[in-house]
Amino acid sequence: MTVEPDRSVRPLSAPAPRSSVESPASVASPPGGRAAWLAWSVGVSVYVLAVIHRTSLGVAGLDAAERFGIGASALSTFSILQVLVYAAMQVPVGLLVDRFGPRRVLLLGVLLLSTGQLAFAFSSSFAPALASRAVLGCGDAMTFISVLRIAARWFPAAKNPFVAQLTGLVGMGGNLVTTVVLAQVLHSEGWTPTFAAIALLGVAVFSLVALLLKDAPAVVRPVEQVAGQHRPRTGIGQQIRACWQEPGTRLGLWVHFTTQFPGNAFGLLWGLPYLVEAQGMSRAGAGGLLTLLVLSNMTFGFVFGRVLSVSARARMPIVLTVITATALGWALVLAWPGGHPPVWLLAGIVVVMGSNGPASLVGLDYARARNPVERLGTASGIVNMGGFIGTMITLFGIGVLLDALAPAGAETYSAAAFRWAFCWQYVPLAVGTAMILRLRRKVIA
Fold first, then answer.
1. Which of 121, 131, 141 is nearest to 64 (CA)?
2. Which domains, from first to last, does the chain contain?
3. Is the overall model pTM greater than 0.90, yes or no?
């Protein structure tokens, strides 16, 4: 496979002409070093907080159904709306990051996360709770792209694939907090104190960003400042079209779509109900498997990051291997006689799904390598929509099928109902794989 050289950073020593589509990214190459790791650490603390907020419903799904008196379709609406808002905000957030810098966007994101979670803590009916999850999803959308942009400004281009995977790995620490700590606190302290405490974590994180984070090191001027000396800013529509016309951006979107949604849907909502209601596991046992999902995700993130930092040729083999392993793993689980696979097999598919998130970051790497840095936020936003659109489709499909197969409610969800409902995953999996193979040929050409 032919790999195009990384174009995400262009030194001023070789400026593009005025008529060029691209502009120089900085006065000097990003220096890396301790200052870069400090800036990244502050930025990634916001992403960790966002993951805690995002996944908090994953261990509270059964509690939410009881608190609000809702069924599977309505319960899935919480996560669907949150993910829908997240996906819809990706391009606007990318444009904001490109125009105003990641620091301001992160500060706004923390405010929205805390506001949404605080409202959720005190909600006692379905409609206000649903609105609060939409606000939370909006804040969540502002975190990951901003951290990637910080990495692009502070680290040399060759280090970006590893830092992106490391960002995802550390972010999973927030998921670990959810499955290990939040699940216990929720059942000991109750709904409102638990979610209110999560909301108040935002005060400390907001202070860190406001006091310690800079958009770029002193030797690197933000690209929008340098570009402004050469030509007027590109229009929003033109910026989006330029990103979309790049086949690498579209390939990145479908890679993200296809690889992320199985593990995302399982961890965000349906994992705990499936393990408890369909497989008869205790909440503690189910929480242990969800913790294994997080640990597997972190391990794969580290491994993929090291491999991709050595060779970009590993991108597509990683993607296709993860898709195949996920499809075969779920086929074995769902086809198991009686619908009750052994614990070792459940643990196996959980470990396989741990590779889903790290593989989806390969899609962002395609966009980063094939778009100039002044379009990086917008291109990353387009790609980052993919997995969350896939997650939304999967969450909704499973919820509708569960309600159709078990109309009496959560108490009647059987192993057979979950088996047929989870077969829905193969629809977006097949569509996404076909699009990857189609666009792969265009990118190679």
1. 121
2. 33-444 (1.20.1250.20)
3. no
